Amino acid sequence: MRVHHLNCGCMCPFGGALYDGFSRSPLAHLSCHCLLLETDAHGLVLVDTGIGLQDMAHPGHRLSGFFRLFNNIQFDRRLSAWQQIVDLGFKPEDVRHIILTHLDFDHAGGISDFPQARVHLLQRELDTAPQRQSWLQRQRFRPQQWGNQSGWRGYAAGGERWFGFDAVRALDDLNDEVLLVPLPGHTLGHAGVAVRQGDGWLLHGGDAWFYREEMRQAERHCTPGLRFYQWMMCSDRDAWRTNQQRLRALSLQTDARVMLFCSHDRRELGLLDSQ
Hints:
CATH topology: Metallo-beta-lactamase, Chain A
Number of strands: 13
Radius of gyration: 17 Å
Low-confidence stretches: none
Order of helices and strands: EHEEHHHEHEHEHHEEEEEEHHEH
Strand order of the largest sheet: 4-1-2-3-5-6-7
Largest sheet: 7 strands, mixed
Number of domains: 1
Mean pLDDT: 94
Structural class: alpha/beta
Strand content: 25-35%
CATH architecture: 4-Layer Sandwich
Distance between the termini: 15 Å
Shape: globular
């Protein structure tokens, strides 16, 4: 299986290095890290979708004013998953599956660009996100992005163990090459997506953490801006804290052969994209 690392959106909140840890300008640079998987038997598989073409064409309808301003979202068609797939020489209609870590606007915005694809996510996210019970939930979860959901497949908790994590589900039609790893906290139905690579694994951790130095070292370090953003967006603090600790422990296991990465660390994406 060949894996392409894509940046499907740019958010540039005011704060510079207080957010991303490296920018020298007043604006930070956060990615929307997605994966495009070339599979032998199942066509193209997209993991998260970033900011979509319709978000760029109709931002006032599709995205909340609060997050457009707070995150200073940049609308660049070249960063859409649709355009990057075309630039790689593929047809967008060849995307047969979309796997979502969760339904936040910056992960689900491109769903409507691939109407032929089957969408996979945890059932708990499918059940809870549309309820939009609080003001913040109404800003982050945008049903305008989701379409009619007729081709969606929700997965209940329960399944096999994977490096100490419970209830891991192999996805329908994708055998055991791609797994949903429940990581609730950021949202109630948040998941990581594990992708088999040779004798090891990639783990797209979504928004289970936000900054590279939260993993691969014994003591967590996060910039003030991203620390605040995680606090603001967290739906279950106990679950978020527990899962982040478990992920940190996994990242320190030298024999585990798991490469972990999150959605919004631009430096981390750059390192993976150059490999």
